[in-house]
Amino acid sequence: MTQHRGILNTHVSARMRRLIAARPWLTVFQLPPYAPELIPVEGVWSHLERSLANLAKRGIDQLAALIKTRLKQMQYRPGLIHGYIGKTGLRPP
Q: Residue 21 is part of which domain span?
């Protein structure tokens, strides 16, 4: 691992390297400081934002309920989630 400007130091510290080395089952990839195309959850948030576009809600409670509903709907569409993972070049579980 190399240390890059803009990366949280705890992710590249000697302590973290020892923690990772002590777990042979753990594979860690250090991503560039900003790489949304490599992070599957970015696709989820983008999809959620598009589904909320042009909607007006009366308050934060209504908005929170709608967001929970939309995320729950995504939960039951594994193909959608696997697609976001696949776009990163990773293999879905």
A: 1-34
